[in-house]
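Notes from the 1:1 (GR / supervisor)

We went over the backlog. Supervisor wanted to see one worked example end to end before approving the batch request, so GR pasted a single chain during the call. The sequence is below; no edits were made to it. Supervisor asked that the structure be written out right there so they could see what the output format looks like.
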Amino acid sequence: MMKIYLFILFFFFLNSQTGLFAQDLNNKELGKILVSESVIADGELGNWHCVFKEIPIFVLTDESANRLRIFTPILEEKELKIGQMKAMLEANFNSALDAKYSLYEGFVISVFTHPLRELSKEQVVNAMEQVINLSNTFGSTYSSLNAHFSTKKSIEKKVLKKS
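Structure output shown during the call:
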């Protein structure tokens, strides 16, 4: 057991010295990713408006706070139908995964938030895809990917099928 603890300590020490897992993403690198993956409509470091898979997305960062937001508007909040707010909140727990539904300045949006420096290019692209998927599935499956966490209802259905 002591060997395991020593290995873990050595591993974290090595990582802290070499930056083995550090991505160190910044606005300049993020801008390059956005240019390579989408059509940039307008932007400057820390504030971009892009078109990704034919959907407008906004990317905002605050390097000093190490934060990133990627979002797209879905519809005006006043257009929400009965039950959709509840469906969004349930999806945020079950099927929205890394992107979430939110309200912002009178709009329902799909948003991904994360520390900026820790992200890789692949994670940024995945985040944009999840934001778009969550937007596209609003009103139907409310999901950002094909994966879902098991809910109480789905577990009960599996148990009933086995009985």
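Supervisor's comment: The chain is about 40% helix and 25% strand.
Batch request approved.
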